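re the bet — no i am not wrong, look at it urself. input seq straight from the record:
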Amino acid sequence: CINECEALLRPIEVAIAAPDALPGSIVEVVEQLSSATVPAPRMLPATLVERLEEIAAQHSGRVPVHGRLFSQWMHLAFPRECPYPHLAGSTAPMRGGDWRLLRGEHFLANSTAMRLHIEEAAWGLEAAKLEGAE
């Protein structure tokens, strides 16, 4: 599988040219990065910048660009391109056949099942909008 996050990390690594950086330096670069699903330039949400500053606070004011926390942050900045880096041993990947044996369910969804999930999600969004309007 192609990891699209690698292409997003390269410009950060080139601009920083160090194993760590100040949060503001990273924000400047990331706000100029675009992907297939994230346009640039953009202004990062304050919560995302704050999260980066929290990471830096744990590392003497600098963000290690090859650490798990920065990888998690990149997932938040580019959710479709950067996979979430789980803690080692915290997930249990399995093959489709193993899933079927364990769960008694088929691991592939047919078009009917997919439509059902889409309709349920749309209904949930409509219900949330109605609750918010009250």
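see?? The CA atoms of residues 96 and 108 lie 8 Å apart. told u. also The first helix runs from residue 4 to 16. so pay up
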